[in-house]
Each structure stands twice: as C-alpha cells, then as structure tokens.
Amino acid sequence: MRPISSTLCLALSCFATETLEAAELKQETSNAFNRYIVLTEERMAKSLRDGDSFYSMAGRPELQREALRIRLRQGEIIIDQMETLDGDRSITVPGGLVHHWIALGFIPGVNLNQALALLQDYEQYPVVYQPDVKRSKLLSTDGTHFNIYLRLYQKTIVTAVFNAEFEVTYFRVDERRAHSRSYSKRIAEVENPDLPKEQERPVGNDRGFLWRLYSYWRLEERDGGIYVELESVGLSRSVPVFFAWLVNPLLKSLPKSYLSRVLNSTRTALTKRQLTYRFDDEAADCFETRCPGLALKQRRRVPCERHFLGPIS
After folding, report:
1. Sign of CA dihedral 18, 19, 22, 27
2. Closest C-alpha among 2, 39, 73 to residue 233
3. In this structure, are residues 52 and 61 in contact, taking their beta carbons and an 8 Å threshold?
C-alpha cells in the first residue's frame, strides 16, 4: 500500500505544480461538453414526459422505488456517478474532464413551497452552503428566472476561488412537484482572493479547475416531507497524460463529497427554519391566549410559505 500512496502523493504534487500554468478552454472542448449537455437534457426531458419525478427511480418497479424511499426517509443520502452516452458510445471531451453525479435525499417535515423558498433565497447562500459559497448576490429575477452571482470556494488537491454567474430557471409541474436548471454563464478564477492584489484570471484561460457547472434540482412533496434529487454536470481541464490513469479517477470522485455537503446543508437549513417557525407559532399561540387583542397584530407570518409561481412544464 505504501508504494501506491507514495505514487499518488507524487502524482498529485506534480499535478498541482502543473496546474499553476494556465490551461485554455478550447472550442473543441466546449463543443463536446455542449453535446454532452444536450444528450443529458434529452434524457431528463424524456424522464419527465414519462411521469418520473426522479431519474434515480425511473424504470424501477414500485417495490424497488419504495425500498429506495425507505432508505431516504431513514436519513441516507444516495450518490451515484453518471455518464451520458451517445447511443452506446462514450462522449469524448478532448482536453477536458466531465464530472457527472446525481444525489438523492429526503427532508422530513417541510413542504414544496418551503424548499423552493430556500433554494431561491440566494442572499443567504453563504450561510446555508458554507464553506462552498463565500459570497452571493441576486442580480435580477422575474420570479421564475434568476440571474445570480456566487463566489465559490473549492479546496481539493489545491485551493481555488471563483467568481461565477448563473442563470437559474424554475418549473412547476403540479402542486407537489417542481424542478429547476442552473447554467453557469461566466466562471472566472480569482487570484489572491480578499487581498489588495486580488484579480481575476482570464475566463477560459486559467488553471482549469472549473470551466462549466450545470445543476438540475428535482423536488417532490410526499410522505410528510420533500424528496430532493440534485444532478450536477461540471467541466474541468484534463491532467497530464503520464498521471491521467491515477489522477483522473480521483478528480472525478471529488464532486461526490460536494453533492453530499449540498444536500446535507439544504436539509439542515430547512430543518432549522421549520423548528424556528414552529417555535414562533407556539409562542404566538401562547401569547394569543393571554393577550388576544395584541396577538393578531404580533403574530409573525412564515416567510417560506410564499406561493411559488413558475411555468408549467
């Protein structure tokens, strides 16, 4: 085991040194990734047309679906690596690595509107999704389409910080189901973050840790809570050929821990909000019993119960 560990450490050290030099996002890399996304979204659209809320459960017999739901209701987060094929062939992305993962979880005691309200509360992302999100800003919205800015923090083999802008669209399927898609519009790696010499590297000509990031949320309210599925497709640079056999599998596995943190953070934030609202309601009920005249003025509304209006898909 020691020789393998030593080789891995050497490979990662060389890779970290190598990636200090700029890597260019070439047009052929971008085109291949775009093709990957088109085929991935075609599969998603077919799944939704077939009435499946989640790809993770598509095509499974109902007994298997229920067994999966039981695991989720017991608190398990299920994460799998994905690969979209072009027919029966893998899609080659020259000069790049595609990171495609899917995660499924369950959050008890909350409804669909509450879950959507949290996902759309972008100003709170640095609190909810720390340490992955350092800053956030809602740039514009019409209630369905959101343009947002996030400062992302990534610590894997090396540390990297990005200024990223995303376009997010939400779709309401019916009263208990919704889904969204998020496209990165601009990702710029930041040099010397939070220091006087802070500056952005040229977009598409940086160390190549994160060139694209597309995310797809699917939510269903049932069984006293919300089932949540998050599918993530990212693009980074490839690694030197000499180390590719060893480093590529590791790099492709890193998003797994990221998705786990995102779903755990979402569940924690929703649970905390639900407990807070429940406490507020109980306190208001107690106050109303003692001072009924004032209680009507003092009772707090639950902000996350705002009605979500989105396009019907």
Report:
1. positive
2. 39
3. no
- How many whole angstroms separate alpha carbon 179 and alpha carbon 220? 9
Q: What is the pLDDT of residues 45-83, one digit of tens each?
A: 988 887 776 777 776 788 888 899 999 999 999 999 899
- Write out the chain in H/E/C secondary structure: CHHHHHHHHHHHHHHHHHCCCCEECCHHHHHHHHHHHHHHHHHHHHHHHCCCCCHHHCCCCHHHHHHHHHHHHCCCCEEEECCCEECCEECCCCCEEEEEEEEEEEEECCCHHHHHHHHCCHHHHHHHCCCCEEEEEEEEECCCEEEEEEEEEEECCCEEEEEEEEEEEEEECCCCEEEEEEEEEEEEEEECCCCCCCEECCCCEECCCCCEEEEEEEEEEECCEEEEEEEEEEEEECCCHHHHHHHHHHHHHHHHHHHHHHHHHHHHHHHHHHHHHHHHHHHHHHHHHHCHHHHHHHCCCCHHHCCCCCCEC
Share of the chain above pLDDT 90, in %: 60
Domains of the chain with CATH codes: 23-305 (3.30.530.20)
Q: How far apart are CA 114 and CA 273, in angstroms?
A: 9
176-200: pLDDT as tens digits: 999 999 999 999 999 999 999 999 9
The answer to whether 242 touches 54, Cβ cutoff 8 Å, is: no
Do residues 44 and 92 make contact, with C-beta atoms less than 8 angstroms apart?
A: no
Find, among 245, 42, 258, the residue nearest to 130 by Cα: 258
Inter-residue contact 188 to 4 (CB < 8 Å): no
